[in-house]
TrEMBL record:
Gene Ontology MF terms: ATP binding; UMP kinase activity
Primary role: Catalyzes the reversible phosphorylation of UMP to UDP.
Keywords of the record: ATP-binding, Cytoplasm, Kinase, Nucleotide-binding, Pyrimidine biosynthesis, Transferase
UniProt name for this protein: Uridylate kinase
Pfam families, alphabetized: AA_kinase
GO biological process: 'de novo' CTP biosynthetic process; UDP biosynthetic process
Positions of ATP binding: K11, L12, S13, G14, G54, R58, T161, Y167, D170
SUPFAM superfamilies xrefs: Carbamate kinase-like
Biochemical pathway: Pyrimidine metabolism; CTP biosynthesis via de novo pathway; UDP from UMP (UMPK route): step 1/1
Gene: pyrH
Principal subcellular localization: cytoplasm
Domain of life: Bacteria
Organism: Derxia gummosa DSM 723
E.C. designation(s): 2.7.4.22
């Protein structure tokens, strides 16, 4: 079967990285994510990854607890750096070349984000991990995924999360919610569907970059998507 998407931006949920634990990185979950990436890497897909930080810190939650919001956001971005380091290490452990780049300057830890270098890594078959989100507070890693996806000319943003698509309402709160198989950007924005923030939806819409939201826990889902099969929810123009 031919691959449908040659270059993708994969957004991995930070929150999902906890697995069944209450905080941090669950080793088994991380290895399962790596196994999914390995399957599509073996098909020749060029893979760039943005990983969230919800398993460690979210600026909004820290802000609600009384911390200065921007400070909380920088802590959230640093959380994504930790997740990116763990992912880079786990990929290398299974023989997949991976390079993480940071949107915040921490040169002793990660090389900085340099777009031409990232593009070269992708052409060389290396998995590129974009750490520290956009590098700016008041954004999210979903927006970083949209931004980097557009910058590298990805054909699609694949958001791997804890639910298996976009629903009429949060399926964790509303048992009667039903899943869309596809939805337009305008509808997703106007209905305030909180699976992704409006900034990310708007950026992808303006750049004509489709998004597919799918379950990170469903075995083989990522591979089926790159082979063109129907999974989760497609967000389109
Ligand atoms: N209409 C909706 N359809 C699907 N999921 C929804 C909807 N509204 C809210 N959600 C929630 O959005 C969550 C996914 O978004 P969220 O940004 O919180 O997580 P993530 O991107 O997977 O994690 P992280 O930010 O740590 O990377 C789902 O787990 C789901 O409970
Ligand atoms: O560009 C960005 C990206 C992220 N943040 C902060 O990091 C946390 C974790 O990211 P998630 O997307 O929620 O997983 C986020 O809550 C923000 O606080 C940021 O400030 N800028």
């Amino acid at each position: 079967m031919p691959i449908k998407h040659k270059r993708i931006l994969l957004k991995l949920s930070g929150e999902a990285l906890m697995g069944d634990t209450a905080y941090g990185i669950d080793r088994g979950t991380l290895q399962a994510m790596v196994a999914d990436i390995a399957e599509i890497h073996a098909l020749g897909v060029e893979v760039a990854v943005v990983i969230g930080g919800g398993n460690i810190f979210r600026g909004m939650a820290l802000g609600a607890a009384g911390m200065d919001r921007a400070t909380g956001d920088y802590m959230g971005m640093l959380a994504t750096v930790m997740n990116s380091l763990a992912l880079q290490d786990a990929l290398k452990n299974v023989g997949i070349p991976a390079r993480a780049q940071s949107a915040l300057k921490i040169e002793q830890v990660l090389e900085p984000y340099i777009r031409p270098k990232a593009l070269r890594y992708l052409e060389e078959g290396k998995v590129v991990i974009f750490a520290a989100g956009t590098g700016n507070p008041f954004f999210t890693t979903d927006t970083a995924a949209a931004l980097r996806g557009a910058e590298i000319g990805a054909e699609i943003v694949l958001k791997a999360t804890k639910v298996d698509g976009i629903y009429t309402a949060d399926p964790k709160k509303d048992p009667n919610a039903t899943r869309y198989s596809s939805i337009s950007f305008d509808e997703a924005i106007s209905k305030n569907l909180a699976v992704m923030d409006a900034t990310a939806f708007a950026l992808c819409r303006d750049q004509k970059l489709p998004i597919r939201v799918f379950s990170i826990v469903k075995p083989g889902a990522l591979k089926r998507i790159v082979l063109g099969e129907d999974e989760g929810t497609l967000v389109h123009i």
